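Batch manifest, entry 17 of 40.
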Amino acid sequence: MNHSNFIPYHNRHIQFSVNNGPVQSGVVVDMAQFRTDGVMTTEYTFIPTGNMIEFKKTSDPEKRKSLSGKVDIAQITWVEPLNW
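Output type: structure tokens
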């Protein structure tokens, strides 16, 4: 999946599969980093469903980092919005 295809799912509660692996759910919020040459990466920050409330309650960057992970949207093979 590329950036353009991922726009409808960005910053929304979704379920998805990476490389046809197990289904995960959560929110994919932003690009995790830029490469040193300034080119955008397809790696985004992922907050799993089970960590969303605690992530939102804290403003501590280290705590937020421990509650989130990274996902490469180029490796997403299936995605569907969750309506909660």
